[in-house]
Structure formats: structure tokens, C-alpha cells
Amino acid sequence: MMERSKTEKPAEEQHRKGDIRTIEDVRLLVDTFYGRARLDELVGPIFNATIQDRWPEHLAKLYTFWQTILLGQHTYTGSPFMPHSMLPLGKAHFDRWLQLFHTTLNELFTGPTAEEAKQRSVMMAQMFQFRMAEHARAGTTPIR
Fold this sequence. Notes:
Blueprint: H1 11-14, H2 23-39, H3 44-51, H4 55-71, H5 81-84, H6 91-108, H7 112-138
Helix pairs in contact: 2-3, 2-4, 2-6, 6-7
């Protein structure tokens, strides 16, 4: 294993804080956030048990998702709700996901697109919780 020189810093430390403008910015956001989420005591076990050894594929999908949402470059196809619909998630999980996501955004970025990412993440968490609660109340399973 190569040792990092004393002057070399992790990618998030090398990044000059600005707005989210490029796919490299999206990758930095996703990699930093999920690096933290995987280690988190509350959400980490769910992510790790669900994704297992498929992290490279999952991260690649997340890059395209956020690239589509934040940069308007339509590279994502799919339905983000469906893979999450059967997971054992409650309000505390969504709150923690938002806290980690917003903390990561605040540390790495500033600007209108970063603010949009925060707004979109809140709307996404609310929509997921609403749809999961609706299915639970109705006793139905989302159609895959």
C-alpha cells in the first residue's frame, strides 16, 4: 500500500469550495457522503447490508442520478423509490441521511446548485417517507 505524502491531502481537502458545476463535483459529493454514510451507526448497516460488495455499481448510478438532478445532464434512468421501498427505514433514518448529506454539502460546496441539492434531498426524503407510509397503511407492496 502506498503511503500518502505529508503534503498530499484527501480529495475533499484539495477541493476549493465553490458551487457544484461538473461531474467531478458530483462525484466528490457522492463519494464523500457515502463514505461517511457507510460508517454511520444508524444508516451504515442498512447501506452495507443492502449494497454489500456492489458499491462501485451503486456509486456509478448515484453519480448519474445527481448529475441529472443538479446539472441537468440526463444520464440517469430508473426509479429511485423502488429500490428503497422495502428497506427497514423510518423517520430517524431519513433525518440522519439528510443531516449527513447537508453536512457534506456545507463542507464542500456553496452556491445555488448546492442549495438546490439540499432542497431536492429534503423533498426526496419527504416523498419517500410519504409513499412508504401509504403502502404500509394500505397493506400493499409497491409494484416493481
